[in-house]
Design brief:
The chain has 302 residues and is an alpha/beta fold. It has one domain: Rossmann fold. The strands form two sheets. The protein has an eight-stranded mixed beta sheet, sandwiched between helices. Strands 7-8 form a two-stranded antiparallel ribbon. Strand 3, helix 1 and strand 4 form a beta-alpha-beta unit. The longest helix is centred in the middle third of the chain and has 22 residues. The radius of gyration is 18 Å and the shape is globular. It starts with a strand and ends in a 7-residue tail after the last helix. It comes from Jiangella ureilytica.
């Protein structure tokens, strides 16, 4: 396996990425797949995990940190800003298509959890992505996400705190932060018990800064991750289970897409699909078949 860093620009910010390939021959053109992870995360978490598995199957898998996160530039830091992430995905797709070791004919995208809804929006806005795969995709609007935060009152409280944090940011440029994950802390971005974010052997890696800009609640809680489906016609695969978030949304999205769409129903919880061997193996097998059919895949056509 070969990995090496890359850098590209998105709206004036330099984004830090990583290329994952099997072997060290940069003369071989391989199909390219962008891989992105959940909200509040960096590339070294679930994105790199899936990228390594796809690279082992002959794809050039590219991960990157969104603007304001990880090794990438961009201000404000630690701000979950859907519009910025959507633009970054489009920039990453254009960058991937420019690489001489990438096979012409289209770039794929695999979005794990929340980044799947950003990828869907990027494709709807014209990002040059020819094939889309969602793994445990989180697609929400305010009505569906509110129960996670205590209903309308919980949403209102978070929006009020976010408005105060946004005022501080506008006044002096300071970013008010809360934990990205802390079990039992109602102010944290994620406050339910989740071993992935607590365990250094899983997602609590050194590259991850466990902070969220509190102003993130404003764009996160009001984002519509479902409406973009009507403008998307690229071949799509949803890898999901009844134990993942919003399984009803997956079938609804499938029916609204303008192109071919399939669902691979597996077993396991949302967090299982981030890194657990059985769920990752199931997802990668389904993704490989989908990408082979839609991008030509690493194997010769029959």
């Amino acid at each position: 396996m070969t990995t090496f860093p890359v850098v590209f620009e998105s709206n004036g910010a330099l984004l830090a990425g990583r290329v994952h390939r099997s072997g060290d021959d940069l003369l071989e053109r391989q199909p390219a797949v962008l891989v992105t992870g959940s909200w509040l995360t960096v590339k070294e978490q679930m994105a790199d995990h899936y990228a390594a598995a796809l690279a082992a199957r002959g794809y050039t898998a590219i991960t990157f940190d969104f603007a304001g996160w990880g090794e990438s530039g961009g201000e404000p830091r630690q701000l979950e800003l859907p519009s910025r992430k959507i633009a970054d995905i489009a920039a990453a797709a254009r960058f991937a298509a420019s690489l001489s070791f990438v096979r012409p004919g289209g770039v794929g995208h695999v979005g794990v959890c929340a980044s799947a809804q950003y990828a869907l929006a990027a494709i709807a806005a014209g990002a040059p992505i020819a094939s889309f795969g969602s793994v445990a995709g989180w697609f929400h609007d305010t009505a569906s996400v509110a129960p996670f935060y205590g209903g309308v009152d919980g949403v209102r409280d978070r929006l009020e705190r976010a408005a105060v944090a946004l005022g501080v940011l506008r006044r002096d440029g300071s970013v008010v932060t809360v934990p990205a994950y802390e079990a039992g802390n109602d102010r944290a971005g994620m406050f339910l018990e989740m071993d992935y974010y607590a365990n250094p052997a899983r997602g609590a890696v050194p590259a991850w800064r466990n902070e969220m800009a509190e102003a993130s609640w404003l764009p996160w809680l009001t984002f519509d991750g479902l409406s973009a489906a009507d403008a998307v016609s690229v071949p799509t695969l949803f890898v999901h289970s009844s134990g993942c978030v919003f399984p009803d949304h997956i079938e609804a999205l499938r029916g609204r897409l303008g192109g071919p769409a399939e669902v691979a129903w597996g077993e396991g919880t949302q967090i299982d699909f981030y890194d657990q061997p059985d769920q990752v193996a199931f997802a990668v097998e389904a993704l490989d078949a989908h990408l082979t059919a839609t991008l030509g895949g690493p194997r010769p056509s029959a």
